[in-house]
Amino acid sequence: MSEHKGVFVFSDKHDLALEILGKSKEIADRLQTELTAVLIGHNVQDKANEMIECGADKVYLADNQALERFQAEAYLGILHGLAVTYKPEIILIGSTKNGKPLAARLATRLETGCVPDCGRLSIDEQGRLVGDRITYGGNAVAKVTFKKKPQIATVPVRAFEKPEPKDRNGQLVKLDVKIAEPKTEIVETKPLETSNVRMEEAEVIVSCGRGLDKKEDKVLLEELATTLCGQVGCSRPLAEDRKWFSEWVGLSGHKVKPKLYIACGISGVIQHVAGIRDAKVIVAINKDPEAPIFEIADYGVVGNLYEVLPALKEAVRKQLQQS
Amino acid sequence: MKQAVDVSQLKVDSATRQLMTVSAPRKMSDFDKNALEEAIKIKEKLGGAEICTVTVSSEDAKAVLREALAMGADRAYLVRDPGFEDIDTSGTAFILAEAIRKIGECSLILCGETSLDSFSGLVGPRLAELLNLPQMTSVRKITAEGDTVIVERTLEDAVETVKAKMPALVSVTREINQPRIPSLMMIMKASKKEIVAWTALDLNLEKDELASKIELVEVLAPKTERKKIRITGENPQEIADKLAKALIQEGVIGR
After folding, report:
1. Does B143 touch chain A (CB under 8 A)?
2. Assigned fold of A7-174
3. Model-level pTM?
4. What residues make up the domain containing B18?
5. What percent helix, strand, coil does chain B show, rounded to 5?
6. Looking at chain B from residue 149 to 188, which residues have their Cβ under 8 Å from any Cβ of chain A?
C-alpha cells in the first residue's frame, strides 16, 4: 500500500476542479506529497495555468478533438492509465452527473473503494483519507475511510471554496493518449433551461413547497427574491411531481449553502432538510404549526404564505431604504 | 433491486445521535421501483421479453421480491448470505454480476440511479464496468428498438440523447415514471410464484473477492443548532416587520 504516492484531481466541470484543487492542496501538504490535476478535453490548455494557480504542482493534459465532450470509456481509459502508471494514493473526482459514475467505474477497474459525495475531507492519524457524507436520506452523516489504495472519493459542487489564485510554478505535461472506443453515442444535446446563477452560489434563496397552490403563484416568491437579490427554489414535489420547476433543493437535487434560506409552505422532510443544512439562517413560513421545518429553522412564522410573503417584501424594502 | 431502509420511518436516538436502523422498516428502494416499472412498460410495448429481478442482501428480502413479482416481474432471485452484511458497493456489484451471468443472457439491465438510504449511486456503474457494458446514467426516458436502446439523460445543464447497442445498463431517475400499485389479483398470483434463493456458495463467490474496500468510522445524526425563534404578531404586517428587522440584524440581507 505504501508505494502509492500523490494526490490526483479530475472534474469534467472546470470550476469544480478548481474548488477541489483548493482543498487537495491542504491534503497534499499534510501528506507532503505532490498535487496533480488531470485536464481532459479539446482546446483546453489555457485552463491548465488556472489549475496551477489554484494549487496543482503538475497538470496532465489530454487534449484531443475526440475528447471535446465527456465520453465515459475514453475519459475512464485516460484516468485508469494514469492511475496505473503513477500510482496516486488519492484520486478526487468532481461529483457531477458524469463524474460520479466515472469514479465508480475507475474504482472498479482499479479494484478499490470509492466514497461518493464527500462534503468534508480529512486525513487521519494513519495518513488515510476520511470522507464525510450524508446518508440514510439525510438522517445521518457517515465518516468513511479506506482499506485500499488508491483511495477514490467524489466531491460535490461548492463543498469547498475556490481558492484565491496565486502566482506559482507548475509543470504542464501533455499526454499522448490512446482513446478508447466509445460504447455509447451522443445523438443530441439540448441545453436545459436553468437559472443563470447556480443555485449552489445563491446568497439568498426563497423556496416553496406543496403549500404553493398554483404555478402562477411563483410570482410571489420571485418578487421577494428580487427584493432580496436572491433566487427562487422549490422542494422536490414541485419539480418532479407537479413539473412547475426544472430543478429543486434537497438531497437528490441542489445542496445549497446560502446566507438566507426562506422555506415557504415546505413541510421539511428529511431529504429536503439535508439540502439546506449548511444555510446560515433558515426562515420557515408554514400554516401548520407542527410542520417539522420549524425544528430546523432559526425563525419560524406560523401563517399563510400568501399573506406573509407580500408583507415581508414590503417590510424589507422599507427597512432597507431607511438604513 | 435493493431492499432499503425506509428512511422516512427511521428513528434517531437523540442522546447518542445513533440511528436505529435495525428496527427500521424495510421496503423496495424507490428508484429501483421506477426501474422495474420501466422494465414492465418496455415489456408491454415489445412483448416477448422476460423480466428478472435480482436482490443481494444479508437479510430476508422476500417481501420486496414478492412485491416485484406482483408488479409484473416474471422471475425473482434472492442472493442472500449472512456474510454479505459487511460488503460495500464493490461487493454488491460483484455479486450482481455473477448472478446475472448465472441467470444467462440479458439485453437490458435497469437499475435505480441511487437509493434513498445509502445514497451512493455507485452500484450501477460498477456493474456496467464488471460486465463490460455500455452505461447510461441519470436517465429519464428509454426507448428500445431492435438491438438499440436510446435514452434521455438529465445532466446539470443539458439533456443528452444517447444511443447504445444492447446489451446495455441504464440507471433511471424517479421522474421517469409513476410505478404502478399491484392489484389484489396480481398479489395473489405473485404469492404462488417461486423466488429462487442463492447463497454465496451457489455463485462460487470467494470471500476475498467480496471484501469491503472501505471502512465505516462512524454514522451519526447531524447536530442541528438552530435558534428556533417563533415570530408572532397581530397581523402579517407586524410579523413581516419583525422578521425583516431580525434578518437585517443577522446581516443576511441588504449590503
Report:
1. no
2. Rossmann fold (3.40.50)
3. 0.86
4. 3-210
5. 35, 30, 35
6. 150, 153-165, 168, 171, 174-175
